[in-house]
UniProtKB/TrEMBL annotation:
Keywords: Heme, Iron, Membrane, Metal-binding, Transmembrane, Transmembrane helix. It comes from Seongchinamella unica. This is Cytochrome c. The keyword Nuclease does not apply. Pfam families: Cytochrom_C (PF00034). The chain crosses the membrane at residues 12-36.
Length: 150
């Protein structure tokens, strides 16, 4: 091999490298999509109420303070696993009542703690929102977050 990088060798490295990484990127994208569709997403439990709850989540910009599965703001706790934190996997009714109670009780205005504002949500919106949080908790995140606190 010559010591000098010729123009054609440089071009081949450029095109070959671009092609290699493009194929790798496309393959990983396809694999991620496949994993989401077949493994991580519980599509049977994806009811209309869960979808409605996602809209309530978006309309009220909960993500401006909270993160969900790591996405969002880091002012307030991660909510992707809040259903587990409230004991929903052991007792769904208590967790639902606890979450509703928490949202209704705001603002707590405890000195030294961050404040969550009051949201005017009716019973149907609250139920849908909690269905959404429950469903999100069922996503197979491969043990993320590493601690229950998120
Ligand atoms: C302005 C910021 C802000 C917004 C917007 C906000 N929250 Fe919060 N939320 C907080 C803070 C701060 C806490 C933690 C308060 C504490 O621990 O005293 C909290 C806590 C919570 C908790 C309890 C979490 C836990 O682990 O105990 C839930 C559930 C929750 N928020 C749901 C929501 C939902 C649903 C929305 C949208 C409708 C929302 N929040 C919008 C600031 C916000």
């Amino acid at each position: 091999m010559s010591d000098v990088l010729t123009r054609s060798a440089a071009r081949n490295i450029f095109y070959g490298g671009s092609l290699f990484f493009f194929i790798l990127f496309a393959g990983l994208t396809a694999h991620t999509h496949w994993y989401m569709v077949t493994t991580s997403t519980d599509s049977e439990a994806l009811t209309d109420s869960v979808k409605r709850g996602k809209h309530v989540w978006e309309e009220n910009s909960c993500i401006n303070c909270h993160s969900i599965l790591g996405e969002g703001a880091y002012f307030a706790p991660e909510l992707g696993n809040v259903w587990t934190r409230y004991g929903g996997r052991e007792n769904a009714e208590t967790a639902r009542a606890g979450l509703k109670g928490w949202i209704r009780a705001q603002p707590l205005n405890v000195p030294g703690r961050r404040v969550m504002p009051k949201f005017d949500l009716d019973e149907e919106e609250l139920d849908a929102l909690i269905d959404f949080l429950q469903w999100t908790d069922s996503i197979d995140t491969q043990d993320w977050p590493p601690t229950p606190a998120g």
